[in-house]
Amino acid sequence: MKRSITVTANGVKHQHEVEPRLLLVHYIREVLGLTGTHVGCDTSQCGACTVVLNGEAVKSCNVLAVQADGGKILTVEGLAKNGELHPLQEGFWEEHGLQCGFCTPGMIMTSYQLLERNATPSEDEIRRAIQGNFCRCTGYQHIVKAISYAARKGGGPVVAPAGPGGPGPEHAGEVKE
């Protein structure tokens, strides 16, 4: 039996009927159409699916969509503001913090929470924060540099805009406020 849930994703409120067993990662990708959140392992090991849910970085393959009911979700698509990259996104670009890019959204969202809690983390604090996110390409050095870059640029919290970073009104289930 489906359940009705309401979430705010990247500043846009959505209401949908979902199966109780639907994982949040699949809700985000398949229902909301926000494909920046990646499915890597489905066992909460790799961190590619990390999003910020109610201010907490979570591996969305380990959370049911119904558990997010009433919550606020921030995905990598919600970070850019007025067409400008968030300092974390800019840092990953400028410091070559990505190669294949598969882990990048999860790394960025994990780092977002770190910078929200600690605006000036040490290299050791950055490495501890991202230890639950796997990258098979970079060796992590450039990822650490990218996060340090963002910290220097003030890469803390954003208020996600409705618009280019989030789904538009053409998406079914969007609730007008």
N-to-C SSE series? EEHEEEHHHH
Number of domains: 2
CATH architecture of the largest domain: Roll
The tally of beta strands, per DSSP, is: 5
Task: Please write the CATH class name of the largest domain.
Answer: Alpha Beta
- The spatial strand order of the largest sheet comes to 2-1-5-3-4
* Rounded mean pLDDT score: 88
Can you walk me through this structure?
The protein folds into 2 domains: 3-78, Ubiquitin-like (UB roll) (Roll); 87-152, DNA polymerase, domain 1 (Orthogonal Bundle), CATH 1.10.150.120. Mean pLDDT is 88; it is low at 159-177. It has helices at residues 24-31, 87-94, 104-117, 123-129, 141-152, and strands spanning 3-9, 12-18, 50-53, 56-59, 72-74. The protein starts with a strand and ends in a 25-residue tail after the last helix. A 5-stranded mixed β-sheet has the order 2-1-5-3-4, sandwiched between helices. The protein has 177 residues and is of the alpha+beta class.
Please supply descriptive tags for the structure shown above.
DNA polymerase, domain 1, 5 strands, five-stranded mixed beta sheet, 28% helix, alpha+beta, single chain, 177 residues
Q: Brief overview, please?
A:
This protein is of the alpha+beta class and 177 residues long. Helix content is 28%, strand content 14%.
